[in-house]
Design goal:
The chain has 163 residues and is an alpha+beta fold. β1 (76-81) and β2 (85-93) form a beta hairpin. The longest helix has 33 residues, at 25-57. Strands 1-2-4-3 form a 4-stranded antiparallel β-sheet. The protein is globular, with a radius of gyration of 18 Å. It contains 5 helices and 4 strands.
Length: 163
Amino acid sequence: MAVLYASLRSLVPNEYLKFSVTRSVSGHIYETVNYIRHLQDKIQELSDKRDCLKKLSNTSNNVAPDCPTSCLECSSVTVEPCWAGVEVLVSTGFTQGLPLSRVLSVLTSEGLSIVSCSSTKVNGMLLHSIESEVNDGRSIDVSELQQKLADLKVKTSSKILKW
C-alpha cells in the first residue's frame, strides 16, 4: 500500500497536495480526487472548445451558425493552482461574452486577492489572465472554484438568451 500511495502522490502536482488540510493519506487522496475532477473538467472544456473551433474552420465565412465567436458557447474558463493562489484564464466572446467583472466578483467572494489581470483581444475573442492569491491562508478547492465559474458562464448565457 505504501508503494502504491507513493506512486499516486508522485503523479499529483504539489500545488494540490499543499492545499490538503491534513498531511494524512486520506487528505492527500481527497486532494487527488479534486485534481482528477479538475483534469476531467479541463478535458471537457478543451474538447468543447476544439469542437467549436472545428465548426468555425469548416465554414466558408468563419461563422458557424451554432458557434459564433461572440457567444458564450465558445467561452472557456480554466483555473490552475499557482504558488500563492490560483490563476484563472478566461477566453470569451468580445460582444456577448462572460463579463470580467463577474469573474472577479466570484474570485473576491472566495477570499482571493487579485494580484494582476491582463486582457488581450485576438480574432474577436477576449483573453483574460487573472492571478490571485489567498487572503487568509486557507486552502482553495480548485475544482470547486472551476465549477462556480462554469456555473457563472451558464447563468450569464441564460440571461443573454432572455434578452
